[in-house]
Amino acid sequence: MKRTIPVLAALGTLAALAGLWATSCSLDMRYEKYAIVFGVADYPGTANDLSWTVADAQAMTALLTAQGFAVYERTNAGATRTELVSLLGTVNAAAAEEDLVVFYFSGHGGLGAQGVGVIYLYDDPIESGAFTDRELADALRILRPSKKIVIIDACNSGGFIADVADVDGVPADYTGTIYLSLGKLGSALSAYFTPGADSDITPGEAIVLSAAGEREFSYEDYSDGRLGYSHGVFTYYLLQAPKRGDKNGDGFVTVTEAYDYTRRMIDQYWNSEVYYLERFSPHVSGGPLDYVLFGAE
Amino acid sequence: MPRKTIAIAAAVLLCVSLLGPAALGAAPQGFSTGLRAGGGIELAGSDPFPVKAQAAGGGGLYAELQLNRWLGLGLAAQAHFTAPSDLSGGFQYRGHWGADLRPYLSVRWTEHSASENLELVAGNLLGAIARYDRYLQTFRYFFYMGMYVEPYLELHFPGGAGGRHSLVTSMPLDLYFRRDLPLSAAAGLAVAWKLYLRRPPTGGAP
User: Fold this and answer.
1) DSSP reduced 3-state for A153
2) Which of A235, A284, B109, B139 is at a distance of 20 to 30 A from B11, taking alpha carbons?
3) For residue A120, what pLDDT is reported?
4) What is the nearest CA distance from B199 to chain A, expressed in angstroms?
5) Which residue of A has its CA nearest to B96?
6) Which chain A residues are within 8 Å of B140, Cβ to Cβ?
């Protein structure tokens, strides 16, 4: 009997700690929020112009401003590589480690040499060069804040997401089928035992929320807005996330919740209406961390 | 799993543990199988983010072969769930769920007999963990391994012709080796119902 007393004491202590923990949590949300919002619709020349990407950026700016972000918005000829690096420096000078930085881009994206994910800022020639995922990761690395979110509404934007310790069950060219759990077990085992180098943005560098997979397009409304979106389809639903994306009702919409909401809405209202080759699905970084993106409205 | 539920479950387990020593005796041997369920907290930490707690729970089946009076080998197959942490500081550790396999070695510390039919056994499990999980609200899958120790108290009840039952209360302490999370560990309380499929030989010393 005497030998059981220490064990029982340990059990009792643990039960008491569990009870204390259950009632002692409170939220501390005191930190500053910064956002750099880029939208390019009017590329040099006329062949590559888009219809709603500047509207996407402006709507995102309005939303983030209302959410308490300090927003730096640049569109069209102002959305250059030089300006992005300059703004990152500006934000870094003002921000502290506990702060949050969001980079949002709406415009053209693609796959560059060796399948590297790229976005096209205003001064990136679409034929010969673009801003790569690695360049963006390097630019973000100088930032002091530990919480960084990258949101890209562009074709092939899933190419910015690195699969480091986990694997994505949503295919890079989504047509309506998501892999079942056991279908990714082999890849997950490989990621654990033989992790490979990845030039994409890792979860430790930033959490990336992309409009589309690495091998698919994202879509926007026609120029006359006949589909009723008057935005990029992904951004249209992302803008709704503060009102409708708080799945667990805790008053906040995390990146993962925003991903979950946009994915479900695009599947329900876009993918069900279009030819299967025009279906697409958002993707999100893996990793153990998730950041608050919006306050629920 | 709601924290209130965990607190209640912990209190119930504590009561069961306190009632256990009422009967003491020798343990039966042989092949056994059973069901187990438990809950607790999981700790996650990834620099520069502070450590946070996550509620966790799970349950499943296990089978065990008692090799001799003191040693046994077993295998548990479980489903588990880890809730997201709180959002303080504007971040959280993601919740996840999945399945795990736990091969283990069971070592009995002591046996106490109080009567012909009731006995209490104290011991410890030492094992490995292989987990395959998915982050909540995503389709991102990951695999990781770990190890655990689980001190237990097992109360054996009188057996019938079909076998002999026991109730086990235990305190699993898990340490996970994740590629994406430098600190990942869990502690909790568990209960199990166990059925010994073969009656112990009669006439021997307890």
Assistant:
1) strand
2) B109
3) 94
4) 26
5) A288
6) 166-169, 284, 286
The rounded mean pLDDT for chain B is 84
Is pLDDT of B1 > 90?
Answer: no
Residue with tokens 């697409």: A280
Stretch 2-61 of chain B: residues touching chain A, C-beta under 8 Å: 3-4, 6-7, 10-11, 13-14, 17-18, 20-21, 24, 40-41, 44, 46, 48-49, 53
Buried b (16+ CB within 10 A) or exposed e, B139-178: bbbbbbebebebbbbbbbeebeeebbbbbbbbbbbbebeb
Is A289 within 8 Å of B94 when comparing Cβ atoms? yes
Beta-strand relationship, B140-156 and A167-168: antiparallel
What is the complex's ipTM, to 2 decimals? 0.89
Ordered domains of chain B (ranges, CATH): 3-196 (2.40.160.20)
What would the pLDDT profile of B110-120 be if each residue is shown by its tens digit? 777 767 777 88
Q: What phi and psi values does residue A284 have, to the nearest 5 degrees?
A: -140, 150
**Helix or strand run (H / E) with residue B98:** strand B96-113
pTM: 0.86
Mean pLDDT of B34-54: 96
Percent helix, strand, coil in chain B, to 5, is 10, 65, 25
Q: List all residues 6 or more positions away from A116 whose beta carbon is below 8 Å from its beta carbon.
A: A132, A133, A134, A159, A199
Top CATH class of A31-295 equals: alpha beta
Cα–Cα distance, A121 to A236 (Å, whole number): 21
| CB within 8 Å: A287 and B188 | no
